[in-house]
Amino acid sequence: MFRFLIVEDVRLTLTHLTDLLQATFPGSQVDAAETVSHGLALIQDASEPYHAAILDFNLPKDVGTSPTIDTTLCVTVRTRMREVLVVHITGYMEDRIVADHIIKAHNDPEDIRFMVSKSDPEWGSTLVNELEGNYILA
Amino acid sequence: MWRASYQDGDPIAKVDGDCWLDCPLVTSEGEVLGKITLGCDQQLSPQEFSAFSVLSAWFANVLAAMRDRIERAKQRWVVEAAELSMTTMAHNMNTQFAPLGLILAKYRRKESSWHGAVELNNQFASVYGALSRIALEANDKLGVVKISPVHFDLLQTLREVLSTNLSDGQWVLTCSAEEARLEADDGKLRDVIVELLYNAQKHVTPRESLFMEVTVRIGDGEIEVLFQDNGRGVPNEIKERIFDNFFHTYTGRGDDHGQGLGLNWARRVMEAHGGTLVEKGKLGNGACFVACIPVKPIKSDVQNAEERYVSIFDR
Predict the structure, then answer these.
(1) What interface predicted TM-score (ipTM) does this complex get?
(2) What's the pLDDT score for residue B312?
(3) In what order do the strands lie in the sheet with B222-228?
């Protein structure tokens, strides 16, 4: 059984992404959070490591706060779960903080991660194809 | 003894030998509201009168500088508020479109069991992609232009962008100097060059027949770049209108026509550097966009107003 973490503040995206993962990987467990704090709590409380963490970049820290670019989720989950596949989903591919994070946090050529642009109409297919082909079924 | 009065108040009796100073009250739109009169009923020595004149001129200049500063700040706030609203709306649209990509992925997986799903999904992807591009372009092009200057060689940047976007025989770059170093936002200037190339390609049929002649002139404290293409050119009556947002000359709304946001954005990038972007070509001889950029970014109007304010005090 695959274990996924999704942190995404747009509920409609979160719902459809959860459905898509469960349809693609039947029997998988999907933990979902809408804020950075909730995501960090799920990582902290996880009894087993996640296979993949699908993380939005622009997220509110807590309920009621304005979204900002967050990199703490990625750093935390990679620190606690060394084998986790981090998938960044973002509409901010050109953002400088995002670019800096990719350079600094993912500088190992062996690092398993990828980034998907939510502006690409086929981003959902890209995401599941990458999960299937590059990691989960390998 | 010094006295002061507003024009609508009790008038001050003026006596020969008294000294008077009228301070006009003018709104930022230039409307005269009235005046404040300062009067002294004592005879002034020539030295006192001279000092008084300097003081009154200084006071008038301070008022003018403050008025200019407030007016510029007000204009900037209005523009930035409008731009922020545009980008926020564009971002929200893009955010709400994102689930469509997941719905599409769900039905992509059903294509093997129902052949008709392929066509339906492709049509859905096409429409969704067009909507997404509009939102992205609005987000990119309507927002506040902020520059991050770095030192670089503009000739090198031009060579890289031209060779990346055009074939070898489609462009020529000439400059009397070996390099054109300046302090500017390299990334944004690259995007401006791409925008000008994209704009030229749209007006040459077929696109592959485009030829771009780029000339770089290095002047005193500024660099001028001419982008001359081999298209039809721009009629005089729309030379300025082409820089308006959403303006285009097409009769239809093809996928490759864009939203009419690129040239306005390109001009705003140049202006953010303290430079300019104009079209100076002759109809029939192709379009010629002339970008002029200072070798160092010029400070904003607000900063200039502040300096003027300081210089009055220093005088």
Answers:
(1) 0.86
(2) 34
(3) B171-175, B212-218, B222-228, B288-294, B276-279
CB contact under 8 A, A17 and B102: yes
Q: Helix and strand tally (H, E) in chain B?
A: 6, 10
User: Touching check for B100 and chain A: CB below 8 Å?
Assistant: yes
Supply B235's token pair.
């009629």
B 121-140 near A (Cβ less than 8 A): 125, 128-129, 132, 136
For B16-33, the pLDDT digits (tens) are: 666 666 777 776 666 777
Residue B312 near residue B65, CB atoms below 8 Å: yes
- Provide residues of A within 8 Å CB-CB of chain B: 10, 12-13, 15-17, 19-20, 23-24, 91, 118-125, 127-128
Sheet with B32-40, edge to edge strand ranges: B2-6, B32-40, B19-26
Asked if residues A97 and A71 have their Cβ atoms less than 8 Å apart, the reply is yes
In this complex, do B98 and A91 lie within 8 Å of one another by their Cβ atoms? Answer: yes
- Give the pLDDT confidence of A7-63 residue by residue, as tens digits: 999 999 999 999 999 999 999 999 999 999 999 999 999 999 999 999 998 899 998
Mind listing the pLDDT tens digit for each residue in B133-177? 888 888 888 888 888 899 999 999 999 999 999 999 999 999 989
Return the closest-CA partner of residue A2 out of A78, A84, A118: A84
Q: Model's pTM, two decimal places? A: 0.66
